Amino acid sequence: MEKEFCERTDFSDDVNNEKGKILYDCDICGKFFSRKASLLIHKRIHTGEKPYHCDICGKSFSQTGSIIIHKRNVHTGEKPYCCEICGKSFSQGNDLTKHRCVHTGEMPYHCDTCGRSFFRNHVLARHRRIHTGEKPYHCDICGKSFAQTSSVPIHKRNVHTGERPYRCEICGTSFSRNNGLTRHRRIHTGEKPYHCDICGKTFTQNNGLTRHRRIHTGEKPYQCDICGKSFSETSPLSIHKCVVHTGEELYNCEFCGKSFSQNNDLVNHKRIHTGVKPYHCYICGKSFCEDINLTNHIRIHTGEKPYQCDICGKSFSHGPNLAVHKHVHSSVKPYHCEICGKSFSRNDYLSSHKRVHTGDKPYHCDICGKSFSQDNHLTKHKRIHTGEKPYHCEICGKSFSQNEQLPKHMRVHTGEKPYHCEICGKSFSRIYNLTRHKRTHTDYQMTSASQDFDISNVIRMESLLKTEQRCYTKHV
C-alpha cells in the first residue's frame, strides 16, 4: 500500500520527511519504509519466510546479507573490517561503525523521556519501548510479545525448541545466540575489551560496562510506572513489579512448584532437579549448571582475581567474595550472638557462628556420612573421596585439593620467604618451618640457663666449703 508522506507527521527520525515522499507501510504491524524492497524483507518477520540458505550448514535466513554475516561468525571467522585506531577487527561493517564510537565517545541519539544517549538511532528506538511498553513482535507458538524482533527467535530456542546452533570450538558448549558464543569465547581468551574511563576496570561485555558506570553516575533509568521507584537495571524493575504490585509469578517449576518472575531463572533452577550441567571446564572437565559458575571455576586454574578492594588492595576471584571482604573494613556489626555477645557484620556470619554453641552440623557427606558445620568444609572433605585436585601450578603442573596449598607451593619456584625470625633474621617459606626454627633459640636459652645455674651452684658450694674449712683450721 502506498501513502503520501504529507498525510502523516509522526514518523521517526529514520523516515525522510520531505513532502511528497512515497512510503510503504506494513499491513500487519503498520511500520513504514521508504523502499518497497525494505518492506518485503520486513514482512518476512511476520511470515517466517527464510528463502536464503547457508551452503555449509543449511541454515536459513530472510536476507542474503545475513548469510554472509553468518558464514563469517560461525564458519570462516573472517573479520574484514578493521578499526584504524586500535586494530580490532569485525565481521560486519556496522559493528566497526558502532565500535568507533568507543574511541570518539560520540552518542548523538538522545531519549527525550529520560535523557539517555545512544550510539545509534535504532538502539534509541528500542530503548523508547521501555518507556512506552510497546511490544510489536509476537511468538507464533505461545503468543508472547517482545519489544525487539531478535527476541522472538531467541525466545523460541530457549522455551519451545531448545535449539542451540552456536557451538564453541574449544570446549563444545552450545548457545542459542551468536553473541552468547562471542561472550563465552572470552572465557578462553581472557579478552576484556570494554574499559571504564573513570576507574579503569575492564569487562568482557559492553552491558557489564554500562551497568558498572551507573555505580559512578548513580543513574537509575528504569522507572516503575506504578509507584515511580527507579532502578539501574531492567531485571530488578520486572521483579519489583511482579513481587510488589501484581504478585504475578509467571514461570513455575513442574517438579517442586517454585515460581520465578523470569524464565531464565526457571531454566537454571530446573537443573537442580534434572542434574543437567551443560557448561564444562576445558581444563579439568568439571561441569556446571550455570555459565557464571564455570567462569568463576576457571579462575581457580588461571589464578585471575579481577575484583580488588579499593581500601586495602586485596584481590578476589569472585565479586561476592569482595563484597563479603569489605565488611572487614566496616566497623558496623549489627548482628549479635545472644549466647556470647559476639558481633558480626553479616547475618550469615552470625548463623555460622551459632553452630559453635549448638554443635549443629547440617552439611553431610553422602559418601562416608561425616558432618560439617560449614558447606565449604564439606566441599574440601569430599575431595578426599574423589581425589579431585582442581588447583594447578602453571609452572610444574603439580595439583592440590585446597586453594591455600597452591600459594605455599609457588614459593618453591619463586624463592619467596615471607616468614622471618626476629632473633637471628633467618627467613622461611612456610610458617611451621619458622616455628620449628625458633625452638633452636629457645632450647639454647634453656640449656644455657640450666648450665649457668649448675655452675653457680658449684662455685657457691666450693666457696662455702673453703670458708668452713678455714674456720675449722682456725679453731683447731
From TrEMBL:
GO terms for biological process: negative regulation of cell differentiation. Keywords: Metal-binding, Nucleus, Repeat, Zinc, Zinc-finger. Signal peptide: none annotated. Residues 24-51, 52-80, 81-108, 109-136, 137-165, 166-193, 194-221, 222-250, 251-278, 279-306, 307-334, 335-362, 363-390, 391-418, 419-446 form the C2H2-type domain. It is found in: Nucleus. One of its GO terms (cellular component) is nucleus. Pfam families: zf-C2H2. Its main location: nucleus. Belongs to the krueppel C2H2-type zinc-finger protein family. This is Zinc finger 91-like.
